[in-house]
Amino acid sequence: MAxxxxxxxxxxxxxxxxxxxxxxxxxxxxxxxxMRGLIGEIIRRIEKAGLKVVAMKMLTPDEDLIKKHYPTxxxxxxxxxxxxxxxxxxxxxxxxxxxxxxxxDTELGQSxxxxxxxxxxxxxxxxxxxxxIQAIEMVRKLAGATLPFKxxxxxxxxxxSVDSPVVANVEGRSIHNLFHASENVKEAESEINLWFxxxxxxxxxxxxxxxxxxxHY
Length: 217
Ligand code: GDP
Ligand code: MG
Hints:
Blueprint: H1 7-21, E1 24-29, H2 31-35, H3 39-48, E2 52-59, H4 63-69, H5 75-86, H6 96-100, H7 105-120, E3 125-131, H8 135-143, H9 156-160, H10 165-170, E4 179-181, H11 185-196, H12 208-213
Antiparallel strand pairs: 1-3, 1-4, 2-3
Helix pairs in contact: 5-7
This protein binds guanosine-5'-diphosphate (GDP) and magnesium ion.
């Protein structure tokens, strides 16, 4: 391709390409994923896609960590949690208020959130930083939709979990969906900073890198 660019532009472009190739996301195998023996399977899917695990640890999170992890003071996010629950009633002849005790998104979201905080402390999790081209979107795609019964087959949640917000909400627990993945750049940065602050994020090359990203012919 003929280029008519300045050195500054080329330097900026190279930096942008480098940043794209090294995009980082945070993801986590939740307690149900660990207890079901799915650690290897989930990491295998991440690696098979060509993405690279650059930091990893296992721990049982405490309440403080989980409350910092989820945007617990973001009213919009809480209302979205409540609103997602309602979609579990699609096609059922159940009344939102009678089933959940409220039809207010925020109130419903708060009750989902308390179940979520409890669930995330119920056992060890595997926390990871994953790197690669469009890593944030790629890992969300590997995860599949939040609600397991809506997650496509071929995704982690679709292949290995089955749960519905109606059942979960009525039973007073979080949806069990195996896996967490950051939704966007802001979430990825704050979650990596929270879970791996001051810790080493590794730098290494995969054998695949040459074939996947370099013109070797
Ligand atoms: P995610 O980014 O796909 O994990 O989805 P959210 O950020 O919206 O929700 C965080 C977590 O809350 C989910 O992964 C589920 O474990 C749980 N959750 C989400 N929606 C519901 C719901 O409608 N009912 C219940 N009980 N749990 C939910
Ligand atoms: Mg989320």
